[in-house]
Model the fold of this input.
Amino acid sequence: MGRVVVDVMPKPEILDPQGKAVAGALPRLGFGQFASVRQGKRFELEVDGPVTEEILAAARAAGEQVLSNPVIEDVVAVYEDAVAQDAQA
Amino acid sequence: MTRVGVVTFPGTLDDRDAARAVRLAGAEPVSLWHADADLHGVDAVVLPGGFSYGDYLRAGAISRFAPVMGEIVEAAGKGLPVLGICNGFQVLTEAHLLPGSMIKNDHLHFVCREQVLAVENVDTAWTRDYTAGQHITVPLKNQDGQYVADDATLDELEGEGRVVFRYVGWNPNGSRRNIAGISNAAGNVVGLMPHPEHAVEAGFGPDGANGPRTGTDGLGFFTSVLHSLVG
Done:
């Protein structure tokens, strides 16, 4: 059992209204140290076997073609989730 | 009689109103089911608004992979008139039939209002019954209505006259360059965020020149496609 994580973020040049709203809420709860917030998505893709190079390549392709919309989002990271691997060991 | 297909995805809300608009314009509405890879020989297709697949992943993102969409993409490439309204517009961008995308409204609120639009291109299959520059009033209701695209795409759309509708008076969602709707290069595929299908019958539409609820400015979309098809 393995797990691949795909992180998707709004493109830097695209205004992120949700992140902006979160940034506005933080100071009200005493977290005044954060100048800005951007909110993205994390996908966890699990496979029955080990995470091979082929699996990572497939996860990258799924990230580009389905999990993100390249007009507004970037796939910023695709990686094996080490925590899940440790739990299985 | 001209037959206009109206697609229902899980979570579509406005398919009944769209079918009613087709009927009031003088055509026969044909229900198309998302899981049915068959257009049943329709002459045009409307993708109505709603929250298909609960807007999961991104608005319109899952619907793009519905079996009926494969047929629509292929037929649109051959000239089939296709109109995407609201969530249907989002589906058309996700299916790459129209450029750009929609993100959350800049003010973060759901907006529901009667919206004035300028019709800037009257050569599309869905706007030929309007006059260039005409102002129309139709309902607008969305959360993810902010149209975005890169500057090169926006310049191309403007240069080719493919900005079909622009918001007038107030930009209700932060859309780039006040864009409310666009078309493909051929003009058979049109998408917009506002809802013409809710302004097609006196008594049920926005306020109009003849009094409250008398506005029928949206009917022209559906008569336009009839006139496009019968030539």
Notes: Chain B touches chain A through 19 residues (CB under 8 Å). The radius of gyration of chain B is 16 Å. Residues 219-230 of chain B form the longest helix (12 residues). The mean pLDDT of chain B is 96.
